[in-house]
Amino acid sequence: MTAPAAVLVTEPRAVGRRRTPLLTVVGAILGLLVLLTIVIGPWLIGKDPYAIDVGNRFAGPSAAHWLGTDELGRDVASRIAHGARATALIALGAVALATAIAIPLGVLTGFLGGWVDLVVTRVVDLFFAIPSLLVAIGVVGLFGPSLTTTILALGLSYWPFYTRLIRAAVVGIRSRPYVDAARVLGASRLRVIRTDILTGLVPLVLVQTTVLLGFAILDEAALGFLGLGVQPPQASWGSRLAESREFILAHPELALVAGVPIVLAVFAMNLLSDSLRDRLDAKRTG
Amino acid sequence: MTGEPLLSVRGLVKDFRERGFGPGRSTVRAVDDVSFDVFPGETLGLVGESGSGKTTIGRLIVRLEEPTAGQIELRGQDLRGLSGRRLLEFRRDVQMIFQNTQNAFNPRRTVRSVLSDPYQIHRLAAGADLDERMGALLRQVGLTPAMLDRYPQQFSGGQRQRLGIARALSVQPALVVADEPVSGLDVSVQAQVLNLFAELRRELGLAMLFISHDLRAVYFLCERIAVLYLGRLVEIGPRRTLLENPVHPYTRALIGSIPVFRPGGGFTRTVIKGEISDSGPVTAGCHFAPRCPLWREMGQPARCREERPLLRPAAGGGMAACHFAESSPPLAANLAGQPSGGHA
């Protein structure tokens, strides 16, 4: 072999700094706001969300109660900040549960194919025939409403479509020439899954996690609104919505204050998932 | 071309079934009773149109697919049912170079990560030794060790194909199956990569199965050439014989399709009539007959539609599968010897 030809050496192209899209900035700011509410909100407000003050019901915003008080005279700001923690816990738990089922199942069915694939795919199809909120209500009916049940209910209603998504992605990756190349080099199935399949799933999982977090926040609110979520007096965004419902004609501002954080958080998640999707395009890696 | 063959393929058949369940699924025979040998250090060219089954043969040999019937032997050892440690040993002997596409390499892994795989799988090297061997490997294919930490998409098409060659050579195989290794590359880059193949073959004594639809590339690199049509081997022979005196009507048409520059000006080429798909499923006889110019010239003899022609020795040391190979007049073209000088 002659000395390496100089022609073959090219330097990596300098990557021009792209301007961050406005919607990404908005999503990041809103997301940060939600995160701050969860982490330091309760401490910042410094009020007991469970302290009842019947003499001070439906009070407007004041220095003592930033967002006023509710039907039992409890501090609304504090209940929302504490509720954010419960809601976040539920959303994260539900997404983690769905991911923990979907990734192994999706990889197994998509990579191995055969009868395992056939059986699991049919079961997933079966679940598709049932509206996911109905699955959630069924689970709550079975175990009784609580924070843990809400996590279980939402996680179990998300796994079928998530599994199908992962399976489709795995089938796509499996047929790539680089997977063939790994097999020809003698890589075991486990090694191929680790080096090629799972790494290929990272962008999809990141995007889906943010999308599902948005869904979970919304569905927690829906379950809470139906009285099937976190039970009073424990605070969550969903239960806050349920509590304010009774007084929606007399005091609509309570429902509004309960609803706005949900809208903002879901909006933030959707914006972030969109920008993640754009960023993680494989062609631009490196 | 003497002594024991390195790779011996006998009666290879591969059927692909339509997806779905139960009976009534149609079967496509992609490879139909194909036999050939590859000798140590030899490069055999496998040519044919798309759909002729050449890629499937390559995938069968590297065991990405299981044959429906037939034998593949490496140094006399049957490869069927190979598993575990024996399969891993086989993987070190036979490697594959893939067509250069965006997906030939995982875009999320650095060259270092991809190239270290074979050394880990076969426990060939680790630590500083691994770095050194990967660097040497890159130099061997005309790249630099500094490129180890780049991602595949930071390379040009030609460089990426060099990486593909490096990946296959990492385990020091005796046989390399190269599936369309230069298609999809610029013509100037094709020449560089073909030269690299020629050099590596000389230095390492590699045997190669070179799968291509590019006759010029095959002429440049291969000692022997096998021509496939619809999954069947129609002619196989030494490069010069096949080029200067092809006997099978299909091979003649294939060679006639190379545009030839005439000193008088302009190009001439003969074009085969019809499409590969026009023939439809051929159940009996010669599968080329529906498109065969010789068959029409001879008044469409019934034997071609009834009896399958077998490979038999033809003039010049090759083999051809045609009942009437002797009847064809010698190829009166001036292209003999023209491409054999090499194009790169």
UniProtKB/TrEMBL annotation, chain A:
It is found in: Cell membrane. Its main location: membrane. The keyword Cell membrane applies. One of its GO terms (biological process) is transmembrane transport. Gene3D superfamilies: MetI-like. Keywords: Cell membrane, Membrane, Transmembrane, Transmembrane helix, Transport. It is a multi-pass membrane protein. It comes from the Bacteria. Residues 84-273 form the ABC transmembrane type-1 domain. GO terms for cellular component: plasma membrane. Belongs to the binding-protein-dependent transport system permease family. This is Nickel ABC transporter permease. The gene is appC.
From TrEMBL, chain B:
Keywords: ATP-binding, Nucleotide-binding, Transport. GO terms for molecular function: ATP binding; ATP hydrolysis activity. The keyword Electron transport does not apply. CDD domains: ABC_NikE_OppD_transporters. Pfam families: ABC_tran (PF00005), oligo_HPY (PF08352). InterPro entries: AAA+_ATPase (IPR003593), ABC_transp_ATP-bind (IPR050319), ABC_transporter-like_ATP-bd (IPR003439), ABC_transporter-like_CS (IPR017871), Oligopep_ABC_C (IPR013563), P-loop_NTPase (IPR027417). Residues 7-255 form the ABC transporter domain. Signal peptide: none annotated. It comes from the Bacteria. One of its GO terms (biological process) is peptide transport. PANTHER family: D,D-DIPEPTIDE TRANSPORT ATP-BINDING PROTEIN DDPF-RELATED, TRANSPORT ATP-BINDING PROTEIN. Belongs to the ABC transporter superfamily. NCBIfam families: oligo_HPY (TIGR01727). This is Peptide ABC transporter ATP-binding protein. It comes from Acrocarpospora macrocephala. The lineage of its organism: Bacteria, Bacillati, Actinomycetota, Actinomycetes, Streptosporangiales.
